[in-house]
Design goal:
heterodimer; A: about 230 residues; alpha/beta; nine-stranded mixed β-sheet; two-stranded antiparallel ribbon; about 20% helix; globular; B: about 80 residues; alpha+beta; three-stranded antiparallel β-sheet
Chain lengths: ~230, ~80
């Protein structure tokens, strides 16, 4: 299979994503510049990486949404291509309307850069099938605007249709306000779209894809995508 | 064509916690300015627009706000338009 990782001016996790999917997972990877107005054929999954695209000017992700490649990403997603947005990538996907809701300023006003525990709330997705249900994983976060917000109806729909992929939790898996680093509603750390082919998450699985850099709890996100594509 | 200037005020929607406003409020209260409350911090954008009429100018700016300058999920905006 083949991953495409988009770089915007200000992306800083693009190479981590290329390393996770390429070196750690052993799949073909290609780096795509945001100005490109086509997605090369043969790509199964697009990764929109973390960083500070366009300096987070105006709002995080607001400008990147208008990069030429984003029209292609929307088309790719509408034709069932897999899309993963990590951190700033999640913010870009909400701004582009490919995922519902918005990421507000962290409720504690702090830029949070630390490891957190996540509970895998739904392990039957293209992005989480390599995890056991409710598995607790340790993944780093690094964001100032990760406070997931959506109106009450949207949250209800996300909950009832099992579209919360990850939630912030304690080390033992308990989902508590204390484990919530940014004020996200219902401890939401990652969601999928209604068709199940777009994932947005604030934590960085690509940064924990190799024990050499601390842990590999995040590699299973990429492994899940590999499983999904190979079994399709 | 007429020339207009638009002043746009963008604020977080009511009901969304404005953590920046809250923090500034705490700082003001440490200056003993306890009579100040309900601080909301937003953005101010000024721009020039060319259009045939005020209605058309408003429609252009309104569209810019809805599509890019503000995010309607979390923000409200107000447009003040004047001919220059």
């Amino acid at each position: 299979m083949k991953f495409g990782v988009i770089s915007f001016p200000g992306s800083n996790c693009d190479h981590d994503a290329l390393y996770a999917a390429g070196t750690c997972l052993g799949e073909e990877v290609v780096n795509l510049w945001h100005k490109s107005d086509e997605i090369p054929s043969g790509i199964d999954c697009i990764v929109i990486p973390g960083g500070f695209s366009f300096g987070d000017y105006l709002r995080c992700g607001a400008i990147a949404r208008f990069s030429p490649i984003m029209k292609q990403v929307a088309q790719f997603a509408n034709s069932d291509g897999l899309v993963v947005g990590i951190c700033n990538g999640f913010q870009i996907l909400t701004e582009a309307g490919l995922l519902p809701g918005v990421l507000l300023r962290n409720s504690n006003m702090k830029f949070k850069c630390k490891d957190v525990f996540l509970s895998v709330s739904n392990n039957e997705t293209a992005f989480t099938n390599a995890y056991e249900k409710h598995k607790v994983i340790r993944i780093p976060i690094a964001h100032g605007e990760g406070n997931y917000f959506a109106d009450a109806t949207t949250i209800e729909v996300l909950e009832h249709t099992n579209r919360i992929a990850f939630r912030y939790c304690e080390e033992n898996g308990d989902i508590t306000p204390k484990a919530n680093p940014n004020g996200s509603i219902n401890n939401i750390a990652g969601i999928i779209n209604d068709r199940g082919n777009v994932l947005g998450m604030m934590p960085h699985p690509e940064r924990y894809s190799d024990v050499v850099v601390g842990a590999d709890d995040g590699l299973a996100v990429f492994k899940s995508i590999q499983n999904f594509v190979h079994n399709a | 064509m007429k020339h207009y200037n638009a002043e746009i005020k963008i604020t977080l929607r009511e009901g969304i916690l404005d953590v920046q406003g809250k923090t500034v409020e705490h700082a003001l209260s440490s200056m003993n300015l306890n009579q100040i409350s309900h601080i909301r911090i937003g953005k101010y954008i000024s721009l020039a627009v060319e259009a045939e009429s005020e209605d058309k100018a408003y429609s252009v700016v309104n569209n810019a706000c809805r599509e890019l300058l503000a995010n309607p999920i979390m923000e409200d905006f107000e447009i003040l338009l004047r001919e220059v």
